From TrEMBL:
Its EC number is 5.6.2.4. It catalyses: Couples ATP hydrolysis with the unwinding of duplex DNA by translocating in the 3'-5' direction; ATP + H2O = ADP + phosphate + H(+). Belongs to the helicase family. RecG subfamily. One of its GO terms (biological process) is DNA recombination. Keywords: ATP-binding, DNA damage, DNA recombination, DNA repair, DNA-binding, Helicase, Hydrolase, Isomerase, Nucleotide-binding. InterPro entries: ATP-dep_DNA_helicase_RecG, DEAD/DEAH_box_helicase_dom, Helicase_ATP-bd, Helicase_C-like, NA-bd_OB-fold, P-loop_NTPase, RecG/Mfd, RecG_dom3_C. SMART domains: DEXDc (SM00487), HELICc (SM00490). Residues 454-614 form the Helicase C-terminal domain. It comes from Candidatus Mediterraneibacter pullicola. It is an enzyme of class 5 (isomerase). GO terms for molecular function: 3'-5' DNA helicase activity; ATP binding; DNA binding; hydrolase activity. Transmembrane segments: none annotated. This is ATP-dependent DNA helicase RecG. SUPFAM superfamilies: Nucleic acid-binding proteins (SSF50249), P-loop containing nucleoside triphosphate hydrolases (SSF52540).
């Protein structure tokens, strides 16, 4: 069997299961070999019941104490028992499994494995796996069982079976690394590495296999970016940008002075726009560092020179907010330019009149979503496109806009705090500027890390803030209740919180499964203070600016990465009022305490990124998942920084010796690079 054969050619995978695999990006047999687990269940010896800890998955052995009880209604039956050993007794519950009363009531030792949570009655193990008789657990003892990313209808067992079959059936597995590179870095042989990525003999074997594929991912990614940069980034600048006196007057009239870092970055952007080649620049700045005003200066330079500039936002709500802020600044500072809004939800008549003003050149600054580059949007002379990291502006958009006129300058704004040395490698197709200084008028956010026992006090504090006219966010890791995970969920939480807060406070909720229109309506209502407390998943990570929001409480903070927690915290502290961030953790582990302590004592995203890098180390099996352009399967830009640098150096050597990748040892690598370039182009298509 070849890697190119469709996944449905494996035994036991029918049409429906094939569609489920396709949904998670597995189209052929080669894809399943690279569909790596998101983690592993490591089956250690059972621990004494008296030593189980809140927030941890534990394995316990004991006998059933007292009667097994079944309670609840038809929709949700809860089975409860008490498990006892010589060190103590533990309450255990299962959802929708009433038949267990007959299965487990026969006596003998049973082994249970599940997450332990704290409830009013004390520690409880929720919905554990059952090993009865106990010998069933011994079969898994000291093994690492893969846990795969799934979609509704696709089970972990189905993926395991498909992977095992693919490993045994594929005769020639394609190694894309040149042989001398594998020898140089002492990489595990390819076939052995594939097997140990899925079914490792132990942690050491997995670490060795992972290192090989991390290097491969970085090498392909860096080579792809460098080849992209060579082909598209040297276009000649066909615009003439003269210095504008009105920009100097605008800066003097502002009620605050730009920081030295903002001025430095603005001068770099201006030099690019006045330079010989088309600008491709990334501006990195921490949450609240003032990137937007720098982008506005670039749009002013474009508009005041008679050209047009476009600002792309990830959501309609954010686009509208940018439009209102920019329109106000143009009016308040007597700047002779007109702003235009263009979004997908506008009526046909509204779009027609917007298109007319854009085509005639009456509109100098155009703000919107992906609607900005649709066919009907014709620009008089578009010279600058400002976009954000989520919508990296790629080859296809440039071609689309070049078709409308001349190749525009590109400015990408990023709030992801990546250490500069890594950013230079990762954003190889862009020049990099960093705003590493916060505006003087911003009050630092006050942080606190607490356990779940603090929740009542936190609610009282939020009530007080709402009574003073402010608003709050609550972040939960999940949308709905899960039988397998103990974590707060948006749907139940918002209902409980509404009951807690009473009728005078309106609680709203937001999550990624909602339609974009619903999300926009909720964020709009929150922006207008029609909703006082917003319960949300991480979908608010990139949201509108709500200066009136002064509190964010993050439930199950131990479940988020440091960088993501920092981004979430950036939703508050955007106005003149003191703001607060409450990190609520159900875990008592020293590791969690150390991680959250970093956020408790620092609001500096670049420092946090560096600490994240220090703490992760080789002990983590898998790193955080980056989104969009940095979406690696196993690699982590922080944890694997050394490997990233090594791959970057090797990429330089390869391109120096074989710029077109025509040597036989590079042909397989070239195929993957061409595929990755296509993926980057698709990811950057709005």
């Amino acid at each position: 069997m070849r890697e190119t054969e469709r996944i449905g050619s494996l035994k036991g995978i029918g049409e429906k299961t094939e569609q489920l695999f396709n949904r998670v990006g597995v189209k052929n047999v080669g894809d399943i070999l690279r569909y790596y687990p998101r983690g592993f269940e490591i089956f250690d010896d059972p621990v004494p019941i008296g030593s189980v800890e809140e927030g941890r998955v534990s394995t316990v052995a004991g006998s059933v104490f007292r009667r097994i009880q079944v309670s609840g209604n038809q929709r949700m039956r809860v089975t409860a028992l008490y498990l006892k050993d010589l060190t103590g007794t533990l309450k255990v519950v299962w959802f929708r499994m009433p038949f267990l009363r007959n299965t487990l009531g026969k006596g003998g030792v049973i082994i249970l494995r599940g997450r332990v949570v704290r409830k009013k009655e004390g520690l409880v193990m929720e919905h554990p796996e059952i090993y009865y008789p106990a010998i069933k657990y011994e079969e898994k003892l000291h093994t690492m069982q893969p846990v795969y990313p799934l979609t509704a209808g696709l089970t972990n067992n189905a993926v395991i079976k498909a992977v095992r079959q693919a490993i045994s059936c594929v005769r020639v597995k394609t190694d894309i690394l040149p042989e001398e590179m594998s020898v140089k870095y002492h990489f595990m042989p390819y076939e052995e590495a594939v097997r140990n990525m899925h079914f490792p003999e132990d942690k050491e074997y997995f670490a060795a296999a992972r290192e090989r594929f991390v290097f491969e991912e970085f090498l392909v990614f860096i080579l792809s970016l460098r080849r992209l940069k060579e082909t598209e980034n040297r276009a000649k600048n066909s615009f003439i940008f003269a210095d504008q006196e009105k920009i100097g007057k605008f800066l003097k009239a502002l009620p605050y002075r730009l920081t030295d870092a903002q001025m430095k970055v603005w001068n770099e952007i201006k030099a690019d726009m006045q330079g010989e080649h088309v600008m491709s620049r990334l501006v990195q700045g921490d949450v609240g560092s003032g990137k937007t005003v720098v982008a506005f200066l670039a749009l002013l330079l474009s508009g005041l020179n008679g050209y047009q500039g476009a600002l792309m936002a990830p959501t309609e709500v954010l686009a509208r907010q940018h439009y209102e802020n920019i329109s106000d600044m143009l009016k308040d500072y007597n700047l002779p330019l007109k702003a235009e809004l263009l979004t997908g939800s506008m009526t046909a008549a509204q779009k027609r009149s917007a298109y007319e003003r854009i085509q005639s050149g009456e509109a100098s600054i155009i703000i919107g979503t992906h609607a900005l580059i649709q066919e009907k949007a014709v620009y008089k002379e578009l010279a600058l496109v400002v976009t954000d990291e989520q919508h990296r502006f790629g080859v296809r958009q440039r071609e689309a806009l070049a078709g409308k006129g001349t190749m525009p300058h590109i400015l990408v704004m990023s709030a992801t705090p990546i250490p500069r040395t890594l950013a230079i490698i990762l954003y190889g197709d862009l020049d990099i500027s960093v705003i590493d200084e916060m505006p003087k008028n911003r009050l630092p956010i006050k942080n606190c890390v607490v356990d779940t026992g603090y929740r009542e006090k936190a609610y009282a504090f939020m009530k007080k803030q709402v009574a003073q006219g402010h608003q709050c966010y609550v972040i939960c890791p999940m949308v709905e209740e899960s039988e397998s995970l103990d974590a707060e969920n948006v749907m139940d939480y918002s209902q409980t919180l509404q009951e807690e807060m009473g009728d005078t406070v309106r609680v709203g909720y937001l999550h990624g499964k909602m339609k974009q229109k619903e999300k926009d309506e909720i964020m709009d209502a929150f922006g207008r203070n029609e909703i006082q407390i917003l319960v949300s998943t991480t979908v608010v990570e990139v949201g509108i600016d709500v200066p009136n929001a002064t509190v964010i409480m993050i439930e199950n903070a131990e479940r988020f990465g440091l960088a993501q927690l920092h981004q979430l915290r950036g939703r508050v502290g955007r106005g003149k009022h003191q703001s607060y961030c409450i990190f609520m953790s159900a875990s008592k582990s020293d590791e969690t305490k150390e991680r959250l302590d970093i956020l408790n004592h620092s609001n500096d995203g670049f420092f946090i990124a560096g600490e994240d890098l220090r703490l992760r180390g080789p002990g983590d099996l898998f790193g955080i998942r980056q989104s969009g352009i940095l979406d690696f399967k196993v690699a982590d830009v922080f944890q694997d920084a050394k490997t990233l640098k090594a791959a970057s150096e090797e990429a330089g050597e390869i391109l120096k010796d074989d710029p077109e990748l025509e040597q036989p040892c590079h042909l397989e690598l070239k195929k993957h690079i061409d595929s990755r370039i296509q993926k980057i182009m698709l990811e950057t298509t709005l």
